[in-house]
Give the backbone structure.
Amino acid sequence: MPKTRPMLSAFLFVLALSQRTPADQPLAQEDGPQPEKKQSDIYGDSLPTRAVARIGTVRFRHGASIEAVAYSPDGQTIAAGDKDGVIRMWDAKTGSELWKARVYRTVVCLAFAPDGRSLASTGRSSGASALILWDSRTGRDSRRFIETKESIQAVAFSPNGNVLAAGIPNEHCIRILDASSGQELRRLTAFTDEPSSLSFSPDGKFLAGPGLDQEIRIWDSTTGKELRRLGSGETVRFSPDGNRLAVGGHDGIRIFEVPSGKLATQLKMNSGELIAFLPDGATLLVGGLGPIGLYDLARGKQARHIGRYWGSILSMSLAPDGKTIAIASTDGALRLWDLATNKQVFPANAISSVVYSASIAPDGKTVATAGHGEGIKTWDIATGKPRRSLGEPDEVAWCLAYSPDGQTVAAGSIENIRLLDARTGQVIRTLKKDRQGSTSCVTFSPEGLTLACADLTSAVPLFDVTTGKVRLRLSAPDHFVSTVLFSSSGKFVMTASNDGQLRLWDAAAGQALRAFPAHSGDIAGFAISPDGKAIASAHRQGPTRVWEVSTGRERTKLGNQHDSIKALAVSPQGLKLAAGEAAGPILIYDLVTGQVLHKLDGHRGEVESLAFSPSGRYLVSVSKDTTALVWDMSGLGINQVNQPPTGLSGPQLNMLWSDLADEDAAKAYRGILVLSAAKETVPFLKEQLESMSRAFPERKKRIERLIAGLDSDQYKEREKATEDLRTIRDDAETLLRQALAGQASPEVRRRAGAVLAGMQGNPPSAETVRVLRAIEALELQASPEARELLETLAKGAKEAQLTQEARACKCVSCSLKVLDQRF
């Protein structure tokens, strides 16, 4: 037998692939008309292959935080560079991308030449960083002037465009270059740290910037002679007439008279690193850590705030006419704000929605999305067209979840969780959290009566949806929980923590049942199979791992050690896994073979979350590029091979029955797959499982005698009954809990409680594991014969583990009402 086992295993695995079950048939259709294949979104921008809709827009959007932005001198275009090293040129009126380039690891600085034909850029790279001049119309790399180990933080063109100044940190100087040839004209020795700002006066006579110890200096731009020092600061800007110099820093803004160097005005604020004079010279635009404001320099006071925006503002640029400001922030969205109306400017017929989280309604027709301060909106899943808004227009939500009946949407924010009516958008109830913090995940229990919340703390509250009160808390001290999910039965809660552990909790009692040592650090992606029997988890570095819930053992690995996965989702059929990479693509795995079925490529930023529609027809992906894409998964089938000429023999079935109890979860899973595909499985398992079901009444009587023995007058009998119950374990659990719920004596309570406590944190017995896996094979096969057998098993004694597992199967849920009348 040992010699034939490898050949037999190979044969059985091929058999499993050849006889794929009804789950591999064409995907069910959501109700209503199906969308036509589209080549562009509702704004006219192209869609990637297999995408049918885009929620949000790619206009003025980067895949990462925008580090630098600059208006062209004619105001027709805007250049922006992001943390991923991508420079994009945008049409300022339409928001369309004109060109893009990537040469840096991170873009640091951008500046247009006065004639607008060239764009200077600097950035950080793994090797040498370069000062590059681009043809602003074509995006071609036209000239490279300086290469340095450290990134150049500041560049500036002279008003006539003949001279280019660049601060070189490692050389502690400013290089003055001929803008045409790149030839060095002179050096100004000044810097001990990275300079953040350089500014030429409008007539080109002066150059200002931070010098030694961040002290601001003004130089003669022709001779390089130092003319004046103005104290400390980080950012400098000359007024339009050149008579004043604004100096910004952490402690506010100071305005100096250039001819005399005297301080004219001082504006106290927490931050003032970003400054710009309006064309009238009487008003100063100031941004930084706080909100952007317009300041009246004559009065020395703030006139008003500018707009609504979210994320830290990293850069801003004023249009040449002084009417519009381009704001770049960490959320990857470039926003244009009209200074006169104090409203966001956006291309006609386009919606500026930023998508950070999404949830699909149970009917599979609607997607709800939220962006920070963008409000909560609902969209048609097939077309991406907007439907209605929920809550307040500026509703802030970090995560969303539809209730199982589709009537309610839970929206988690820093302060609280709000339950919104999905039809009217009105607030039904506000759930108060213990402490303020970013809510990373909200999820409803299957029956919709409980809501779990993860907010990057060690405690996970379970709210009663009806009363809004916390029913109980799951607490794992010293570990921050990032994700929480209910099992399909609602009996268990799974959490993912920053210590790399997956934890299984009793949803009713709040007790930790067991932990899975899944990864060495933060768990980035986390998904439960539809039947609740498997968990997929991913780390920011390494393969995706699939775990068996009942034992906590690993079933398989997907991908390799170099993967960086952020999001996971299992298809409703349970045979496909979608994995979103940090670089943007989405991999669709066959969970049986581990092979990649397809690669969906179209996001500009890393994928934050994934969700299949209830039928599995659509996959919705949310990305850091502030959009969501709806992918058509129809026709994306599982690999097929020819059916082997023979089925399973008796010895082979017995061998597989043995494998179902094996400690090797990977071997057992292969056995499950083989049994799920073979026509001989149902008759074989019917004999095995019905025999166990028929034997349970006698087993139950023995357990009841042992529980009674816990209260014996004889110490030895009490000890033996306790030990025997520990041996029986899983089948005794329900009866032990019933005893504790009744009028048990103190001795029975003590001993029964100790036996139950010993079960916590330990996997089930080998015999119970075999039952669980056999039920999974039948449910996965999903044939009429398999369903009939499961329904028969579900009618057994309600205390039996076999009965409980059969009743939990979705394919017998339609019969539960009838069964519940018996129980």
